[in-house]
Specification:
This protein is an alpha+beta fold. The chain is built from 3 helices and 8 strands. The protein has helices spanning 47-55, 59-62, 173-194, and strands at residues 18-31, 34-43, 71-72, 85-92, 95-111, 117-127, 132-143, 150-162. The protein starts with 17 loop residues before the first strand and ends with a helix.
């Protein structure tokens, strides 16, 4: 069986790098005021390149909306690994916050026996505006069946979050969902520019 367009194998569309993306700020209620945000995208770059981009903590500033005035306070360079803590400053709705996260899982790309590559890492809020914030970043190579190579990475973000002072914080939930959607939509668009 030959591929329908052999001249396109291994080629990337030069105009679109991040495609088929979606953001669901409250994809699922986890109960007791906790929600699951889910976002995913196909990034037309190899897994290693995509993972390396996210492994560089300074790139978080590039993909965060400017209106948040997000900046990393931790001295650079930051060695990413399990146990790494990173301090940030940002503004949410004009209110300044300090935020500290810790990498609780660090799984860089490893070639699997099945030729499927994957990687992930998880950061957890230690100090910040949320009661709970657990952000799992997952990456999987999409392997071209014909060429046996990977030029596309499926990226999935899952964030379990809970607002402070629940249930008193419940009236803020619609605003938070809207803001999270705006942040992650910006992130997807910024990723497209980052991988030009």
């Amino acid at each position: 069986l030959s591929p329908p367009h052999p001249e396109l194998i291994g080629k990337r569309n030069p105009l679109v790098k991040v495609r088929n993306w979606s953001v669901y700020p409250a994809a699922e209620s986890l109960g007791n005021g906790a929600y699951l945000l889910r976002a995913h995208a196909h990034i037309e770059r190899p897994l290693e390149e995509v993972f390396d981009f996210f492994a560089d903590a300074t790139n978080l500033e590039r993909i965060t909306p400017p209106s948040l005035r997000f900046s990393i306070v931790t001295p650079k360079p930051i060695e990413m690994r399990t146990g790494t803590q990173i301090d940030y400053r940002l503004k949410l709705n004009g209110i300044p916050f300090r935020w500290r996260t810790q990498i609780t899982e660090w799984n860089p790309p490893l070639k699997a026996v099945t030729q499927r590559w994957s990687a992930s890492f998880t950061d957890v809020q230690i100090k910040g505006p949320y009661h709970t914030w657990v952000h799992k970043h997952q990456f999987a190579a999409i392997v071209d069946e014909y060429a046996g190579t990977s030029f596309t990475t499926h990226m999935v973000d899952e964030v379990q979050y809970r607002l402070p002072l629940w249930p008193l914080g419940a009236p803020a939930l619609p605003l938070v969902k809207r803001e999270l959607r705006r942040i992650f939509v910006h992130r997807m668009r910024a990723l497209n520019e980052a991988f030009v």
